[in-house]
Amino acid sequence: MSIRRLLLDPILIDAAAQAGTEVWMGAKVTALVKDGGRVTGVRVARNGSEQSLKATLVVGADGRNSTVARLAGSRKYNLTPNERFFYWSFFEDANPGAEPTLIFHRWSGNFVSALPADSGLYHVIAIPELGELPRFRQNREESYLEYVRRCDPVAHAISGARRVGKLFGMLRWEGFFREATGPGWVLAGDAGHFKDPAPGQGIQDAFRQAEFLAPAILGASNKSPSALDEALADWARWRDDDASEHYWLAADLGRAGLAPAVLPEIAQRLYEQGQLDSFLDLFNHRSTPSKVLTPPRLLGATARLLARGGCDRRALLGEVGGLVAQDARRKRLARHPHYAPLEASVDAGATEVEDDDAVGLR
What we know:
CATH class of the largest domain: Alpha Beta
CATH superfamily of the largest domain: FAD/NAD(P)-binding domain
Strand content: 15-25%
Structural class: alpha+beta
Helix content: 40-55%
Largest sheet: 6 strands, antiparallel
Number of helices: 13
Number of domains: 3
Order of helices and strands: HEEEEHEEEEEHHHEEEEEHHHHHHHHE
Strand order of the largest sheet: 7-8-9-6-10-15
CATH topology of the largest domain: FAD/NAD(P)-binding domain
CATH architecture of the largest domain: 3-Layer(bba) Sandwich
Number of strands: 15
Shape: globular
């Protein structure tokens, strides 16, 4: 379920080379080459010298601190700050049970995930609230192990296991959309859109975008530059439509505090009705929140909680009202995005990472 980057990256590079790509390692883009406002290539520093490479289209697939995005002046919009942080590592000789299982536990403000990884390893992720960051920084190892052992299935799985390799961390970031394309350039993957890592969808999203971007490029590659621009603009609109609901879902999953009471109630009812797969389909892009967390289900969950008693009725109704208002606001943002100032859009300082170079779950 999880493949470390040290294995995944060579697979992707080899696939690109086999498809006819000339792969350059240790090369750095330093500038975009332009002709009359249109990007026509890049300047690349390599082996102590610089040279220009011409291109009909420059694809920036260079991560959330994208150089191509910065040089092209792409603006961010609909930003979301992180309210949690991540530490993760891998364990040898873990005992996750007879059947490989994804653990995804969020309870009482805690959040732990674990899943089988490559090479027989077990991938365990701590996702604490930002308020716990000072404690983690004092003793990362001890704090990480104490936190993940709060989750009983994980504590059992790693009770006789040995942690191997680095302890990785991702501490500060922001979720965003970026303007996806302009004359002669386009952004793919995290370069154009980064969501809270809580649902682990980043690499999946990048593959999904590439699957739709490639035919858009090929379909217009032998046409005029304006036809290519139009095809890429269509793709950019598809990307935003395709990613919008999952973007907000990821932000909700990564929020600090307790989940709204109606959400576990909806999940429980789906489980009882043998329809839990419809909820799990939110994580593999087979469904969207609007198709699963529907108004009838929201109203039904609210009614059951009120009838059951033992809850603060005013707080529950206020919480539900807040969810409805939040959904309306997000729909407005989909039609009328809120853009960050350009200087904030190109500032890489919002990301704070510790050893984020070998994680396979995004």
